[in-house]
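debug: dumping io for the single-chain case to check the tokenizer round-trip. Nothing else runs in this session.
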Amino acid sequence: MGGFGIFNVGHRHPKVMSAVRAQLERQALHSQDLLDPLRAMLAKTLALLTPGDLKYSFFSNSGTESVEAALKLARTYDPKKPTIVVATKGFHGKSFGSLSASGKSTFRVPFGAMLPGFKHVPFNDILALVDILASCKMTGEDVGAVLLEPVQGEGGVNVPSDEYLPAVRRLCDEFGALLIFDEVQTGLGRTGKMFACEHWNVAPDILCLAKALGGGVMPIGATVATEAVFSKLFANPFLHTTTFGGNPLACAAALATIDVVIEERLSERAASMGTYMLDGLRRAVRGHGDVVLDVRGKGLLMALEFSDDETGFTIAKHMFDRGVLVAGTLINARTVRVEPPLTIERAQADKVFAILGEALDTFASDRIKKSA
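debug: decoded output
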């Protein structure tokens, strides 16, 4: 469990640590009134690295902040189209706007009414998206943006069909809506590509990043968008600002992290190790089909779906007691996430398989004893 996707390059990678230490000796934080070369360098790097026509970046401190910036960019791009379509089981953070876009009611209900203008549709259901886009247009609630995770993380590691995201892109173009991809968890090589959307050759108008971008050393978020989208802020860039976002330490960490991901070919490694681990996990659960309903994933973002929440928690606890940390999702422990650093070795993966198999055998044995 690599910090919910933070430790893509491993823990305390020497290149990232060295870059941050060196920057600390020069300047830790910055004045927002002055130009900072590291921010410019990182923005240029992301413009070259990200797919499609993505060009400008706004830097923040977390994933939820990167989504907040995306929502504001979408609203200001066309104020006459205030509706934003999001997916059920999606998760985009817990600040107010991001929470309004998220699909887990447990986290929304305690805070009363959410921000208006969000419509939820099932993930990976293109007909539902067609219906909501058409109905909103008919009622005058035109959709200004569609916000999705290319692969849902907290919702249970839900991988879409190969047809889904290309169809979403076509619909957004047809209805004049922006497409926003939240790659806070899936970005920077996690799924076997630098960005998950590249599996389906789909480029968004706005891309949200965070988590792994700081190399497991510094927190940083980024909202990357096309020139057309960002041009709405050119007249008054002070419409959306941040005190600490894009600070020199965070930018130094991000630049070093991107260098490591490319140089060590961690995207390709996630693809090959993802195949190895999915195969190993499936072998480990054989004979326990009544308990493990599914093993799925993309690259090194994987999940085990159990028959119920209690079973998932029990298996996860057994594994933790033996030195393997896995984690439930924000849905519950019924779906347990396996999300190691992209640097995981085969011997470490083999240990995971062995302990998972042992946990399942122990669970089955205990259940037989209880029923006897």
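debug: round-trip ok. DSSP finds twelve helices and eleven strands in the chain.
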